[in-house]
Design goal:
Helices cover about 35% and strands about 20% of the residues. The chain is of the alpha+beta class and about 250 residues long. It has two domains: about 10-15 and about 140-240, Heat Shock Protein 90 (2-Layer Sandwich); about 20-135, no CATH class.
Length: about 250
């Protein structure tokens, strides 16, 4: 049986993080304009130790399913980001549950600032839902890139393995860019070996790359020109987000 790599390829994720959603900045500006009005409508509560998302929903809203709504979000204060609902099963103390509460009914006719605040609170719930959808799509893309990259490395290594030699035969890294739907597989020979490299074996490396692309047969991915990064061979791969693998997967 073929020996696998001792360790999986290291993964580098290239990303940009936007700390504060624009709609929230606008809402806070509207609140500051009418400092004498009621407090902000986005209210956050600490998650208690050992508390599940269902117990948290019951404690805050008396509805065990309220966490599914766009007006219920869990905030990671350390990372200044909202957590995707798919990850709510991993909540822990230190996080905060935030509720978008309805605006209070005032006896007097609200001023322009309050009308703006009410409108933006409604828009904010939609923005939170859009943000969650964006996070979920990015996570799905990242998983697809990493799965394909890991399979690519495994197949490239397979024909290099010598059962009589216990040493590793290949070094590998994966650089993921989920926002661009792209992946760079980086391969290099271990000490004492010459393959793969582009200086002496470009034709062989190009042949192996084409062979593996045909073998994996994932038509979402296309391969760009190979290039050298020091001792590494960099293999750029682009993913078409609107295509599916054959068989409907």
């Amino acid at each position: 049986m073929a020996r696998r790599l001792d360790t999986p390829p290291s993964v580098e994720v290239l990303t940009q993080v936007r700390l504060v959603p624009p709609w929230l900045a606008i809402v806070l500006a509207g609140i500051a304009a009418e400092a004498a009005a009621a407090p902000p409508r986005l209210v956050c509560y600490p998650v208690m130790p050992g508390e599940s998302v269902t117990a948290l929903s019951v404690r805050l809203t008396r509805d065990p399913q309220s966490w599914r709504g766009a007006g219920f979000q869990i905030l990671d204060p350390a990372g200044a980001r909202f957590i995707a609902k798919a990850d709510y099963k991993h909540i822990h103390a230190g996080l905060q549950a935030c509720l978008v509460e309805p605006a209070l009914v005032r006896p007097a006719v609200p001023g322009m600032g309050w009308w703006l605040l009410i409108l933006l609170c409604s828009s904010g719930a939609a923005a939170l839902f859009a943000l969650q959808s964006s996070i979920d799509r990015r996570k799905t893309t990242s998983q697809a890139l990493q799965t394909f990259g890991t399979a690519f490395v495994r197949e490239f290594e397979r024909h290099l393995i010598d059962e009589r030699c216990p040493q590793r035969v290949l070094r590998a890294e994966l650089a993921l860019s989920p926002n661009r739907h792209s992946l760079e597989v980086r391969l290099a020979p271990t000490d004492g070996r010459r393959y793969p490299n582009l200086a002496d074996h470009r034709t062989n490396v190009e042949y192996d790359v084409e062979r593996i692309m045909n073998l994996l047969n994932d038509r979402r991915f296309t391969c760009g020109p190979l290039r050298a990064r020091g001792s590494w061979v960099a293999i750029p791969l682009q993913m078409a987000p609107d295509l599916r693998k054959e068989g409907g997967t």
